[in-house]
Every structure is written in C-alpha cells, then in structure tokens.
Write a structure and sequence with these properties.
The protein contains three helices and no strands. It has about 70 residues and is mostly helical.
C-alpha cells in the first residue's frame, strides 16, 4: 500500500516593491541622474511583471513560460 503526501500550493500576496527599492536607489551616493531614472524604470517594470505573474492563472503554454522567464 502506498502513502501519498499532500502539499498545498504556495500562495503569493501583494507586495509593494517599488517604494522601498526606489528609496534605496535614491539613498545611494555617486549615481548619476540617468542611472537612477533607468533603475527606477526597471524597478517599475519588475513590479509590473511580478503582479502579472502572481495575479493570473498561467497555463503550461509557451507564452506563459516566456512571461515567467522574462
């Protein structure tokens, strides 16, 4: 007789990444204004991608996998 272990799926919750990361970047000395702007844009893009991945059901299709890889 085999025994199976049931493990619930991991759930994620909303997290505000933008505010703390932007304040950290702004606190760094020696960064040019251009680098700060590009970094903040990257942080906003990262937050958008995270929200997209965590808020919708992703199938096993190639497009969903590409979104997760990005």
């Amino acid at each position: 007789m085999s025994c199976f272990l049931s493990v619930p799926l991991k759930q994620t919750s909303e997290v505000d990444l933008v505010k703390p990361l932007v304040s950290y970047v702004e606190s760094l000395a020696g960064l040019s204004a251009e680098v700060r702007v590009r970094t903040v844009e990257g942080i906003v893009e990262l937050d958008k991608l995270r929200k997209t991945i965590s808020s919708q059901f992703l199938s096993k299709q190639q497009s969903s996998l590409e979104l997760m890889i990005r």
